[in-house]
């Protein structure tokens, strides 16, 4: 009878569970409980921007147990904290654990790109594409890295690859338009900007780029139309006002430029660039006193603006596409 009751309560006939085994199981459960608490506390902290605390949680969790997902969270936290060396070490470990997980290489490419190391970014993009040749993100990042390296033709080719993929078409057209403008090929830029506008008629940057292409092709009125479209789409787009005003001043429509800039100032009272542009328009009309007052206001606004870096404005070439 004693043997029967022992088997009933131990779960196996004639065998008692070793005390050490039960202790190990209890320890393992406690370790898992602590790991879970640390991991999910870290994840909640990461989501609400408490990145330093999140990183500490992930490190402590990983000291208890190495887990792929938690490593990815730690890498994200390290990137946000600009702790590049640790982030790279975490990515190395992720690559060892799962060499087929492409996002490890893509994330490392983005990190290298952000650290101004385009050659290394390029290599990581190639690794990503070796795992998945349909990843539009890798082609786009590759194009940006190639642009930094001055390899324009290859950058355009990478954009073209991304444009063939549905998910990357719009972003690829936008980037390729920028590349063509930087390469002084406005006709190709004009065509790509038109394709992008056909896909996304509300894309402000497409109109800005098409306007610049029109200017480069000596069509200021068409450029002005594009810049006005930017303002219509977004009455708070500073660059749209500046570009349109510059065209108006350059085509002897200074009064129209002033009217437009007053609209800009009404929408954006702290917009120093609008005062600078209006000062130029007033100067063209012979209003030296009004121009001086606008420049003084602009200077005061710039002194109180810590978010933007302002540079002297050059109005000598009104078609140089320099931001005001």
Task: List the main descriptive attributes of the protein structure presented here.
Serine Threonine Protein Phosphatase 5, Tetratricopeptide repeat, disordered N terminus, mainly alpha, disordered C terminus, 324 residues
Brief summary of the model shown:
75% of the residues lie in helices and 0% in strands. The chain is an all-alpha fold.
Could you give the order of the helices and strands? HHHHHHHHHHHHHHHHH
Radius of gyration: 30 Å
Summed over residues and divided by their number, the pLDDT gives a mean of 90
The CATH H-level superfamily of the largest domain is Tetratricopeptide repeat domain
How much helical structure, as a percent, in the residues?
over 70%
Tertiary shape: elongated
Briefly note the structural class of the backbone.
Answer: mainly alpha
Strand content: under 5%
Number of domains: 4
Distance from N terminus to C terminus (CA atoms, Å) equals 97 Å
CATH architectural category of the largest domain: Alpha Horseshoe
CATH topology of the largest domain, what is it called? Serine Threonine Protein Phosphatase 5, Tetratricopeptide repeat
Would you identify the regions where 5 or more consecutive residues have pLDDT less than 50? 1-14, 310-324
Q: What is the CATH class of the largest domain? A: Mainly Alpha
Helix tally equals 17
Query: In total, how many beta strands?
Result: 0
For the largest beta-sheet, the strand count, sense and barrel status come to:
none
Report on the architecture of this protein:
With about 325 residues, this protein is mainly α. The chain has four domains: about 30-100, Tetratricopeptide repeat domain (Serine Threonine Protein Phosphatase 5, Tetratricopeptide repeat, Alpha Horseshoe); about 105-185, Alpha Horseshoe (Serine Threonine Protein Phosphatase 5, Tetratricopeptide repeat); about 185-235, Tetratricopeptide repeat domain (Serine Threonine Protein Phosphatase 5, Tetratricopeptide repeat, Alpha Horseshoe); about 240-324, Alpha Horseshoe (Serine Threonine Protein Phosphatase 5, Tetratricopeptide repeat), CATH 1.25.40.10. The longest helix has 29 residues, at about 20-45. Helix 8 (about 135-150) runs parallel beside helix 10 (about 170-180), helix 9 (about 150-165) packs antiparallel against helix 10 (about 170-180) and helix 16 runs antiparallel to helix 17. Mean pLDDT is about 90; it is low at about 1-15 and about 310-324. The chain has helices at about 1-10, 20-45, 50-65, 70-80, 85-95, 100-115, 120-130, 135-150, 150-165, 170-180, 185-200, 205-215, 220-235, 240-250, 255-265, 270-285, 290-305. It is elongated. The termini are far apart. The protein is about 75% helix and about 0% strand.
């Amino acid at each position: 009878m004693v043997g029967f009751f022992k088997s009933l309560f131990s779960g196996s006939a004639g065998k008692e569970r070793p005390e050490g085994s039960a202790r190990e199981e209890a320890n393992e459960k406690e370790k898992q409980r602590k790991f879970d608490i640390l991991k999910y506390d870290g994840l909640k902290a990461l989501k609400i921007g408490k990145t330093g605390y999140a990183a500490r949680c992930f490190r402590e969790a990983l000291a208890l147990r190495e887990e792929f997902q938690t490593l990815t969270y730690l890498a994200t936290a390290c990137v946000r904290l600009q702790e590049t060396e640790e982030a790279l070490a975490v990515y190395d470990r992720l690559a060892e654990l799962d060499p087929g997980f492409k996002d490890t290489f893509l994330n490392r490419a983005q990190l290298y790109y952000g650290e101004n190391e385009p050659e290394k970014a390029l290599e990581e993009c190639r690794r990503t594409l070796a795992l998945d040749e349909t990843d539009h993100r890798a082609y786009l990042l590759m194009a940006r890295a190639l642009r930094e390296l001055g390899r324009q033709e290859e950058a355009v080719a990478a954009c073209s690859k991304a444009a063939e993929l549905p998910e990357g078409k719009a972003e690829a057209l936008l980037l390729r338009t920028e590349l063509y403008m930087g390469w002084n090929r406005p006709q190709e830029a004009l065509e790509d900007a038109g394709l992008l506008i056909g896909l996304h008629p509300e894309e402000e940057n497409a109109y800005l780029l098409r306007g610049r292409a029109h200017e480069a092709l000596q069509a200021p009125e068409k450029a002005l139309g594009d810049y006005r479209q930017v303002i219509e789409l977004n009455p708070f787009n500073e660059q749209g006002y500046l570009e349109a005003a510059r065209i108006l001043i350059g085509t002897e429509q200074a009064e129209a430029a002033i009217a437009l800039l007053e609209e800009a100032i009404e929408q954006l009272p702290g917009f120093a660039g609008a005062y600078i542009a209006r000062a130029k328009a007033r100067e063209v009309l012979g209003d030296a006193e009004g121009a001086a007052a606008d420049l003084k206001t602009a200077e005061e606004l710039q002194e109180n603006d810590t978010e933007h870096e302002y540079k002297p404005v050059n109005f000598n070439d009104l078609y140089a596409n320099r931001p005001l």
